[in-house]
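USER: My hope is that you can spare some time for a protein that puzzles me. I am handing you a single protein, as its sequence and its fold in C-alpha cell form. Walk me, if you will, through where the backbone shape changes along the chain. The protein I mean follows directly.
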Amino acid sequence: MRLRINFKCNTFVESNLMTKKVVGIAMGGYSSEREISLESGNTVYKVVSQTHWECFKILVDKNFLTVIDSRENHYPINPKNFTFKRDHKTVHFDVVFNAVHGTPGEDGLLAEILEQHHIPHTSCDQKTAALTFNKRDCLEKVKKWEVPLAKSFTFDQGDNLDVETIVNKVGLPCFVKPNRSGSSYGIVKVYEQKDLKEAVDTALKEDHQLIIEAALVGKEISVGAYVLNGEVVILPITEIISENDFFDYDAKYNGKSKEITPARLDPTTEEEVHKNVKKLFKKFGLLGVCRSEFIIVEGIPHLLEVNTIPGFTPASLIPQQLSAAGIELVDFFESLLEEAMKKTTNLEI
C-alpha cells in the first residue's frame, strides 16, 4: 500500500517561533533501498545539524510519516497540512532535503506531497522524478535527444518470454534489469540463452516491468552534477573498475570495486560527457544533485541511467566527487537547501 494523503485543507498553521529555518531530512521509504536511504539521510542530518538550520529527520514509511528531533523524540506528521506539533506549537517545514532512494522519494510521490503544500525540496519535481525513475520511459525520451544508448528490449510480467527474439535483438551477454529500482537490486547479467528465464524471474521479484539491455563493453563512468545559481555544475567524473562481473550491489557498497576520481578520460570524451549531462539537465528539467551513468564505447559515451536521488553513504560516489572538487559536504548541502528555496526553473548551460 502506497502513501496516499488528502491534501485539500485550509487549516491555519501557527507561525514558526524558531529563529532558524526548519529543514526536514526525509529518509527511509519502502523499497529495497530503505537501509541505504537511512544511511544517506543520517549523513545529511549529522552535517546539516551543525549549521544554522533547525533540523529534523522525517522517517518515511508506507502509511505514515514520523518526525524525529535531536533527542530522538517522535512526532507524527499531520497529513492534512504536513506539519507537526512540538512543545504545543505547530511546526512547518521551510524546506525538505529528499534523501529517500526508490519509492516514494525517487519516483515523485514525496515531491507531489511537498509541492501540493508549497514546501520547497532539494529534488526535481514530481513529473520529472516519475519519468527518470522509470528506466524505459527515461531512455525512450533520451533516444529522441540523440544520446547514444544500448540496444534494449522491454518485458512485463505475464508476457510470453521469447528468449530467441530477445537474444536476436540485444545479443549476449545482456543485462536483465527491473525497470524501477536502484542500487543494482535485481539486476542479472546473462551470458547464455538458457539462463535468461531464471534472470527474468529474479528481476521480477523487484518490479513487474523489466528492461533487457545489451551489455556494452567499455569504460564505465559515473557523473555527478547539480544546479547552483541556475547553472549546471559538473563534478569530477568517477571511473569504475568492478572486481565483480559488473558494478553490482556488492561492488557499490562492499568495497568490491576500484573508483578513480577524476576518471582517466581524454579531453574530447570528457567534453562529450559534459555536453550530454547538461543536455539531460536541460531537457528533463533536473534540479538538485543527480548522477548519470555511462559506458564509454570506442570514445562514445552511452547512457545507462539517470539517478535523481544519489546516495551519501561513505561508499557513495557523490561524496568522493565532492572531495575531488575540494567541496566540503556542509557547504554542498547548504547550497542544495538554498537553491531549493529559490525554486530555480531556468538553467543556464
Q: What stands out?
A: The chain has three domains: 22-121, 131-147+217-342, 152-214. Residues 1-18, 246-251, 344-349 have pLDDT under 50 and may be disordered. The two ends are 40 Å apart (CA to CA). The longest strand covers residues 219-228.
